[in-house]
Write a structure and sequence with these properties.
The complex is a heterodimer of chains A (529) and B (258). By secondary structure, chain A is of the alpha+beta class. Chain A has three domains: 191 residues, no CATH class; 144 residues, Beta-Lactamase (2-Layer Sandwich); 63 residues, no CATH class. Chain A has 16 helices and six strands. Chain A has a six-stranded antiparallel beta sheet with strand order 3-2-1-6-5-4, with helices on both faces. In chain A, 24% of the residues are buried. Chain B has 258 residues and is α/β, with parallel strands linked by helices. Helix content of chain B is 45%, strand content 14%. The chains are: A alpha+beta (529), B alpha/beta (258).
Chain lengths: 529, 258
């Protein structure tokens, strides 16, 4: 082993003091942690972090431990195990209320117990009984709420309060204290259960108190607390029953209204979010559509410009080679393709031979010249045989492609026939390094260019044929005229030699006269010479 | 159901952005609908998809300030099923502005919850290499955290703060955060890399992805052409390894769902 190289033992303490959290925690653990209220990170720490301290967590994490724990525990205790966020929120609220109720009941119990030490009396005993029973009902309700039975817990609490009120009303006349308990039950029923329960509770309270008054008035039973004068009790009863009904109606209306407003707000918010998302998607979709349309327009503008340039070239040159070279270069640069070539058929239509092509590779192909057999497996061979355009969007997946070792980057290819009427001249082959680079638009544009070039090639061919025919006719006319004027064989021969040489641009023209044997001998000598 | 994955590390240059982009592209390639969110003020993820950060009028900053929705600021990526929410340098200021606002840690999570249901199968968040309100938002919103680590001494040491951050986030804002460690830019010719990989494997056990991303020049080149590796060099080792990572992630998701 070389010296100064790290060893395994040197790295043993790399993670020595690291506390590895579990990769994923169980749902139970998560629920426990979730029960903790979301707390803000202490301002002092956050400021240190935002100031850009490089090791914000080292060395102390004390703020986590320093935070007061009792509040967290209380909040955790109040958390309701339910997936319904509305129910969880209601559970937390009622949980707080029940805890407060429990605390008040406890305080009242202590207070009445102290008073009880001063001497036993019936009102004090009743006063002690109310908080104790209220505390028990609160505790039971809280247990139910904590177990997730929020609605049942609330019902138990409201019914408990109401039953307590009944017991007090049974025990004595309708004093202020008892009436307030009834009001408390009416309000809770309306706010925590359904608004209509406020009304029912108010009616129940009125009915029950009147019924008890009648029972007491008819001496059916004797109340524990001796009522005051009948007249006064009647006034109290009437007054409080009116108040019960009024409060019941009020709580019903307010709670109902509040519920409706909350429901509307919730519906509106949901609709708003849905509409916002839909709108955002629509804007994104239209922007995308606009971009695509814009791209298509730009592409068409380029196509048109390229077509115009090819037309111009076709109109301005009669040299087929020059026209083909201009066209392949234009197509390659304007459309940013990988490689473009013109193939023309040989005289017998057996081979398609590269006549113009782009780049250095193209020049080599023309010089070679590169040729493909008509009807073979190549794209060009196929197109020349079937006289139809062909697109291959992924040449790797198609056996019929322009397989040339000099062009390894080709991923898609389009080949179009060059024809004028029924006459096939060859093919235009375009290759791209992108998959699926060609679509119908490209096909139409490139076919238009190929047709233009084919017509120009045919025109050039016709022009050359016509020109040659004219020259021949003119030669024949001139020769005929000179021969008619000739007076000797020598004149005839000189005229023929001169006109033939001039018409065909020959450096030398010779007419030999003699017998067949002499001429053969002369020809052999010339070849040897 | 949408799975949100944050990619975070306190150390710069450990292939956070590359992992976010390449993993996102690999998932999109499998036909999943993926949203990439760049919350790094350096906006490397934004640039790597050929989007010029400083020309963006709307970024993830608008989303965190609740001035725009995620869908409204998203761009369509270079391949089908891949969208992205861009960032720019304005986030530097936002990191400080956000703090102190009510419920700032939950802003991104709230916005993700407001997305149309099942619009995206995966949301990948590229975090800045520092801790602040932006990273806290990402980790609060995430179901999974991927911690890329390079097999080098400083990079391995830099795992301590992110692990403490996992503790903190679980306690404060996101108890269900699960994490996995991903070894990136692994150089098998290098002895120190092998030694540190041994250490990581022995310490992290099940928290470590089996897939290892090895060093690959094509991964470095792909941002220059604004394409994910899956499009730029689809047959390279880097592209194949990120595809394997996507498959492993899918298997993990399937196991956790079962």
């Amino acid at each position: 082993m070389k010296k100064n190289q790290p060893t395994k033992s040197q790295l043993d303490d790399l993670f020595a003091d690291v506390v590895f959290p579990e990769p994923a925690i169980s749902p139970g653990q998560a629920a426990d942690l979730e029960a903790e209220p979301a707390q803000e990170i202490p301002a002092a720490l956050m400021e240190r972090l935002l100031a850009g301290e490089s090791q914000p967590f080292a060395p102390d994490m004390s703020f986590v431990q320093d935070e007061s724990r009792w509040r967290q525990r209380l909040e955790r205790w109040l958390t309701i195990p339910t997936d319904d966020p509305d129910l969880a929120r209601a559970g937390r609220t009622i949980g707080r209320l029940l805890i407060s109720s429990l605390v008040v009941a406890l305080a009242a119990t202590v207070l009445f117990s102290i008073i009880l030490l001063g001497g036993t009396s019936f009102p004090v005993l009743v006063g002690l009984g109310v908080p104790i029973s209220g505390g028990i009902v609160s505790l039971l309700s809280f247990v139910l709420v904590k177990r997730g039975q929020v609605r049942f817990g609330i019902r138990l609490y409201v019914v408990g309060i109401f039953v307590g009120c009944l017991a007090l009303a049974y025990a004595g006349d309708l004093s202020l204290g008892i009436a307030l308990y009834f009001l408390w039950a009416i309000t809770l029923a309306g706010l925590l259960l359904e608004p209509i329960y406020a009304l029912w509770t108010a009616l129940a309270a009125t009915g029950v108190t009147i019924f008890l008054f009648v029972l007491q008035d008819q001496d059916v039973y004797e109340p524990l607390i001796i009522p005051t004068q009948r007249q006064e009790t009647l006034v109290n009863l009437g007054t409080w029953n009116v108040i019960f009904i009024t409060i019941g109606v009020l709580v019903y209306l307010v709670a109902n209204n509040l519920n409706r407003v909350l429901q509307q707000e919730r519906t509106l918010r949901t609709e708003l979010v849905t509409q916002q998302n839909a709108l955002a998607r629509e804007v994104a979709r239209r922007t995308d559509l606009l971009q695509k349309t814009n791209y298509q327009l730009q592409k068409r503008a380029i196509h048109l410009e390229a077509s115009a340039q090819v037309s111009q070239a076709a109109a301005s040159t009669l040299d087929p080679q020059e026209l083909m070279q201009i066209t392949v270069d234009l197509i390659r640069t304007q459309f940013n393709y990988y490689h473009v070539s013109f193939f023309l058929l040989d005289e017998v239509g057996e081979w398609a031979i590269v006549r113009a092509s782009t780049g250095e590779i193209g020049r080599k192909m023309v010089a070679q010249p590169h040729r493909l057999v008509v009807g073979g497996e190549s794209m060009v061979g196929w197109v020349c045989e079937h006289r139809q355009p062909r697109i291959t969007l992924d040449v790797g997946a198609d056996a019929v492609h322009f397989d040339h070792p000099w062009l390894p980057g080709t991923r898609s290819e389009i080949t179009l026939p060059l024809h004028v009427g029924d006459k096939l001249l060859g093919a235009l082959d375009v290759q791209s390094t992108e998959e699926a680079a060609f679509d119908d638009d490209d096909l139409r544009t490139l076919q238009g260019m190929a047709d233009l070039v084919a017509i120009a090639l045919e025109n050039a061919h016709l022009f050359a044929s016509t020109r040659q025919g004219t020259r021949h006719q003119s030669l024949v006319a001139r020769l005929t005229e000179r021969m008619q004027k000739a007076t000797s064989v020598t004149d005839i021969l000189e005229a023929a030699v001169e006109d033939l040489g001039e018409t065909f641009d020959l450096a030398e023209a010779v007419i030999c006269l003699g017998t067949e044997t002499e001429l053969r001998t002369k020809k052999d000598r010339t070849n040897i010479g | 159901m949408t799975t949100t994955i944050a990619i975070s590390s306190q150390k710069g240059g450990v292939a956070k952005t590359t992992t976010c982009l390449s993993l996102g592209a690999s998932l999109a390639e499998r036909g999943f609908s993926v949203l990439l969110i760049d919350i790094d003020p350096q906006a490397n993820l934004t640039m790597s998809l050929g989007i010029e950060p400083e020309l963006q009028r709307h970024t993830v900053g608008d989303v965190l300030l609740e001035q725009n929705s995620l869908v409204a600021v998203s761009h369509e990526g270079p391949m089908l099923n891949l969208d992205m929410v861009p960032a720019n340098q304005g986030l530097v200021v936002l990191d400080k502005v956000l703090y102190g606002r009510n419920g700032y840690e939950h802003r991104l999570k709230d916005q993700l919850n407001m997305l149309e249901r099942n619009l995206y199968d995966f949301v990948l968040i590229d975090c800045p290499p520092s801790f602040g309100t932006l990273t806290l938002n990402a980790l609060t919103a995430a179901d999974r955290l991927i911690i890329p680590v390079q097999c080098e001494y400083y990079a391995a040491r830099a795992m301590r703060p992110i692990l403490k951050l996992v503790h903190l986030v679980r306690r404060k804002t996101n108890p269900r955060l699960a994490y996995r460690v991903l070894v990136t830019m692994y150089d098998r010719r290098n002895k120190i890399s092998q030694l540190i990989l041994d250490q990581i494997q022995s310490k992290f056990h099940s928290a470590l992805f089996e897939t290892i991303i090895e060093i690959d020049t094509k991964l470095r080149e792909s941002p220059t052409v604004g394409l994910p590796i899956n499009l730029y060099a689809p047959r390279t080792r880097g592209a194949q390894q990120y595809r394997a990572l996507a498959e492993e992630l899918m298997n993990n998701e399937k196991e956790s769902t079962d």
